[in-house]
């Protein structure tokens, strides 16, 4: 029996045939409207801005409602299609790894941020919110996935929002001492506008900690167009180190620190990632079978030298 396609797979099929796929969106950082095509990713053009270095797909600048459909239950649950779409094999199995990663990053940020109200954007199933609560923070979550946000709130009892960052900023302006997001700007269709909402959500002197894959990192340069952050259609924007700094500074944030931090990852997810990158499509079924027999909770600690964590501050006297 043929398995139903995910929202992302359906989208990619229709996108390749659409007129929208031929549109060249303006750069979200500098406004350049003449970015050339860098390469094609699963039928989606990836453009590279010659002025600021930002790379982006044709989904850049579109409404977030276009991408919301990608993040349903099939994105988070065990799936044999994970090797093809690079969604998660089983996000639930990553709970301990995610909690360890968030604790590492909260410890890193706490050197700059006063401990208090904490917002995690892209909180998924709420594992990071659990970690923050254990570390003495007062956590709130946000995730565009209604499936994930509902599951997180139900499971943890922590407040989790899903409507929009704009709406959250209107209702909670200046409330958070620390806002964190891990690989979130890459998913956003309008990252500058969303960063403006994050800025408004921060208290004066509040700290923003964002971690993103960097195109000119060691891993990005080594892997080129096979870099593991090139994931269509989920990832839309791809930052160089300088463009990452630029987009944060453009909204009024002061860069405090940049670091490549250690990561903890579930072994199954690493196998899926490696298989999706290195093996032919006909081998993907074998990878899924291998994942079924691997210990679900076994994790490894490593540093990919790919994801840059940037700590930035809202000016203390800002409104």
How can the largest sheet be summarized? 7 strands, mixed
At CATH's second level, what is the architecture?
A: 3-Layer(aba) Sandwich
Which structural class matches the secondary elements?
Answer: alpha/beta
Enter the CATH topology name. Rossmann fold
Query: Number of helical runs?
Result: 13
Mean of residue pLDDT values: 88
**Could you state the order of secondary-structure elements as H and E?**
HEEEHHHHEHEHEHEHEHEHEEHHEE
How many DSSP-defined strands?
A: 13
Q: Please give the alpha-carbon distance between the first and last residues.
A: 58 Å
Strand arrangement in the largest pleated sheet:
6-5-4-7-8-13-10
**Strand fraction:** 15-25%
Shape label: globular
Number of domains: 1
- In helices, the fraction of residues equals 25-40%
Radius of gyration: 19 Å
Low-confidence region ranges? 1-5, 80-87
Regarding quaternary structure, what we see is single chain
CATH class: Alpha Beta
Write the CATH homologous superfamily.
Vaccinia Virus protein VP39
């Amino acid at each position: 029996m043929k398995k139903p396609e995910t929202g992302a797979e359906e989208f990619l099929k229709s996108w390749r045939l659409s007129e929208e796929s031929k549109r060249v969106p303006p750069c979200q950082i500098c406004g350049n409207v003449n970015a050339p095509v860098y390469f094609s990713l699963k039928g989606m053009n990836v453009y590279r801005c010659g002025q600021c270095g930002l790379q982006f797909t044709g989904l850049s600048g579109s409404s977030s409602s276009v991408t919301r459909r990608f993040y349903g239950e099939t994105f988070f649950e065990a799936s044999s299609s994970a090797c093809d779409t690079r969604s998660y094999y089983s996000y639930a199995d990553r709970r301990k790894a995610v909690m360890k990663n968030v604790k590492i990053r909260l410890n890193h940020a706490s050197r700059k941020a006063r401990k208090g109200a904490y917002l995690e954007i892209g909180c998924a199933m709420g594992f990071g919110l659990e970690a923050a609560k254990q570390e003495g923070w007062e956590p709130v979550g946000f995730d565009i996935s209604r499936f994930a946000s509902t599951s997180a709130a139900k499971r943890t009892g922590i407040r989790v929002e899903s409507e929009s960052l704009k709406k959250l900023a209107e209702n909670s302006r200046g409330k958070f001492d620390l806002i964190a997001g891990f690989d979130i700007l890459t998913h956003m269709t309008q990252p500058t506008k969303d960063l403006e909402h994050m800025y408004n959500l921060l208290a004066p002197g509040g700290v923003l900690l964002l971690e993103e894959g960097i195109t000119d990192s060691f891993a990005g340069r080594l892997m080129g167009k096979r870099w593991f952050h090139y994931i269509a259609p989920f990832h839309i924007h791809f930052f160089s180190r300088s463009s990452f700094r630029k987009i944060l500074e453009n909204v009024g944030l002061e860069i405090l620190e940049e670091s490549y931090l250690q990561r903890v990852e579930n072994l199954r997810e690493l196998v899926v990632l490696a298989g999706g990158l290195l093996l032919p499509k006909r081998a993907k079924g074998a990878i899924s079978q291998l994942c079924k027999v691997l210990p679900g909770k076994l994790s490894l600690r490593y540093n990919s030298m790919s994801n840059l964590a940037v700590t930035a501050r809202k000016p203390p006297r800002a409104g």
